[in-house]
Amino acid sequence: xxxxxxxxxxxxxxxxxxxxxxxxxxxxxxxxxxxxxxxxxxxxxxxxxxxxxxxxxxxxxxxxxxxxxxxxxxxxxxxxxxxxxxxxxxxxxxxxxxxxxxxxxxxxxxxxxxxxxxxxxxxxxxxxxxxxxxxxxxxxxxxxxxxxxxxxxxxxxxxxxxxxxxxxxxxxxxxxxxxxxxxxxxxxxxxxxxxxxxxxxxxxxxxxxxxxxxxxxxxxxxxxxxxxxxxxxxxxxxxxxxxxxxxxxxxxxxxxxxxxxxxxxxxxxxxxxxxxxxxxxxxxxxxxxxxxxxxxxxxxxxxxxxxx
Length: 308
Fold this sequence. Notes:
By secondary structure, this protein is mainly β. The chain has helices spanning about 240-260, 265-275, and strands spanning about 5-10, 15, 15-20, 25-30, 35-40, 65-70, 80-90, 90-95, 110-120, 120-125, 130, 135-140, 150, 155, 155-160, 170-175, 180-190, 205-215, 225, 230-235, 275-280, 290-295. The protein is globular and about 55 Å long.
């Protein structure tokens, strides 16, 4: 079915951090569809294998297009961003960064790898190709206090780097400021769980998103709904286990508060039927780690919120 885009935002309309004082560049009604043009995470500073990440301006990394305000969104609500489509450009990049990534001690020098996207395939070189799996790395709303650069994740969302945030995902973001003030960017043609070298296939493109609201319901961190499951996030500093603890606690809370599980039932259910996973946990690095818990859609817990 064709999607009619009601609004479009240029990749020139960007923010570099999420905070409480964001000013919207567009206000839309619930149900509106917006196409966001996004930059690659390097904002065009890397275009070939001769361009190295050690030579770029890191103040121009991870721009997020927006923000937009959704009319009627108030603190205590959830802003729902349904990703309808992602269209990447034809060329992307990944980099090796000195002193970053689990295997950084085996890397002698910075490196840039160019990827070509053709139809549904990403080509790394003549030997290595893999399926296109487009997703949005940065997806978030205004905070209720701190100003967090777009390299970081938190209760507002931000750099969640969840490869599940592709077409079909519905992301429930906790509104902390009137209008929500949503922005997105850091598109990847593909990214593996953990993002071990600290980049996916970084690429520019367009994302078409439909917005809605759930009034009077929200989680602590963003929650994502997919066709067969819903996904709870938890974020922390460099300690992934702390992020996993937070995701597990939030999953238990939603099962208890929304679906009348006892705390003990939720604890056992999370162990026997749900999957814990990594969104981003590249080490060593100064940014956030993000854990997720995937909860299957069953009659006992068919969605994140009882009236979503």
